[in-house]
Amino acid sequence: MHSNNSKLNILCLVSNEFNNSLVEIKEYLKFCPLFYKDFSKNEPKTNYSAVLIDEAVLKNKSIISKIYEEKNSAKILIFRTKLIETSNFDLLIEAPVSINELNKKIIKLITSRKFTQNSSVSIKEYILDKNEKKLKKDSIYIIVTEKEVQVLELLSSEKKPLSKKVILNKIWQYAVDADTHTVETHIYRLRKKILDKFNDNKLIISSKKGYLI
Description:
Elements: E1 8-13, H1 16-24, E2 31-35, E3 50-54, H2 61-69, E4 74-79, E5 91-94, H3 99-119, E6 120-123, E7 126-129, E8 134-137, E9 140-143, H4 146-156, H5 164-172, H6 182-198, E10 205-207, E11 210-212
Parallel strand pairs: 1-2, 1-3, 3-4, 4-5
Antiparallel strand pairs: 6-7, 7-8, 8-9, 10-11
């Protein structure tokens, strides 16, 4: 399979008719269509941002069940019949559709998904929303500061405790021998917020070697 690194890769699992249409307009697309016939048996080696199918493929149960298992890529359906099950798709495009509209809808979906993925971090049973500056658990949340966001993200990215000096250097860019209670103060306030709202005093653990999530 050939892919253009300057474009988003979209895996196209479509009928022969739609496949031929995409091939004809390929040079006008703002994404790179990847055509793969053995998806139900083997995964493509090329990374892709979304899976595009047309309603004819809905009849292929082995392909559809595998598409539904996909968690990292968006699912796009191009359809002509409205009486079909569509709840498992992230984007529905009714045919016929212009090239400009096809490009616009798909790029908008992928861009939106990337923004959401980049702004959210899963930390145990919590979600850290870096855009809204919230730490969420179910329907409950606390507001966190920019530094608290950085502390949470840093600690959650490490498997071993981080010392005060390492945290200072990575977040505040202080010299490693700085003498300050900045880290202790920020983590104390953050832990108090978490305890007061979520009744959880075990998210950020302190030890002799430093702090750990």
